[in-house]
Amino acid sequence: MKIILTHEVSGLGAAGDVVDVKDGYARNYLVPRGFAIRWTKGGEKDVAQIRRARKIHEIATIEQANEIKARLEGVKVRLAVRSGDAGRLFGSVTPADIATAIKSAGGPDVDKRRVELGSPIKTLGSHQVSVRLHPEVAAKLGVEVVAA
């Protein structure tokens, strides 16, 4: 099935790309979550609009991505969350929480879709998070989760 990506999907493509995927993947995952729309002949107008919006938000060059990476890796991110007695969190830390914490710590503005968690953060302590700035540049960021 041919689809038009509306958001960046790891391993598949960036917003505005027209890709061919299996029917079930598109029908059950990408389209319901808003990551893609079905490709039609009239959808070519949508592709141009999505690509224009992507150019506004994307980091254009590797040099620019490396500058932002250096700024990100110099930021100390602390997140205060509610937790139980054993150090387990009530819920988990989301990429949106991390993006907000980076901004409040004085770091650059990061889109929550660029924050990649290896596994859900459900305990107090130090955790490593990756922020994908460019297809070739990713920043490793230490996040300290503390009790509120």
UniProtKB/TrEMBL annotation:
It holds the Pfam family Ribosomal_L9_C. Residues 13-40 form the Ribosomal protein L9 domain. InterPro entries: Ribosomal_bL9, Ribosomal_bL9/RNase_H1_N, Ribosomal_bL9_bac/chp, Ribosomal_bL9_C, Ribosomal_bL9_C_sf, Ribosomal_bL9_N, Ribosomal_bL9_N_sf. Keywords: Ribonucleoprotein, Ribosomal protein, RNA-binding, rRNA-binding. One of its GO terms (cellular component) is ribosome. Gene3D superfamilies: Ribosomal protein L9, C-terminal domain, Ribosomal protein L9, N-terminal domain. Binds to the 23S rRNA. Belongs to the bacterial ribosomal protein bL9 family. This is Large ribosomal subunit protein bL9.
